Amino acid sequence: MDDKMLARIQGDPNYQSLVKERTSFGWTMSIITLVLYFGYITIVAFAPSLIAAKISGDITVGIILGAGLIVLSILLTGIYVVRANSRYDDLTRAIVASATGAVR
Predict the structure, then answer these.
(1) What is the DSSP letter of 45?
(2) Number of other CB atoms surrounding residue 80 within 10 Å
């Protein structure tokens, strides 16, 4: 890739939109994940009796919260993948078409 093509890509409004959206959405998803994980660890550290409370048999609140955390992480990953496969891929195709001079 030469410097002219690189400059053309970086100047493309689709590229700028892609970078802005991906960065913003990535940080949002990261913050949500960190809040969930640190929240769980905070409960473990400061309310161990809550985590140890039995719900049924050997199943405790901690096990339910831990499993829920894993499920939420998978769900958040799925949300990101859906967005990447739709919006981000569309923008990427538009950027490539613009940079190579192909017709969209």
Answers:
(1) H
(2) 16
- Integer CA distances (angstroms), 70 to 9, 32, 40, 58, 65, in order: 38, 13, 11, 19, 9
63, two tokens: 């096990």
Of 73, 69, 60, residue with least CA distance to 40: 69
The closest of 92, 45, 40 to 61, measured between CA atoms, is 40
CA 87 to chain centre: 14
Amino acid at 24: S
Question: In the structure encoding, which two tokens stand for residue 54, read together?
Answer: 């039995």
* Global pTM value: 0.78
pLDDT digits (tens, 9 = 90+) for 29-58: 999 999 999 999 999 999 999 999 999 999
All residue ranges of the chain with pLDDT < 50 are none
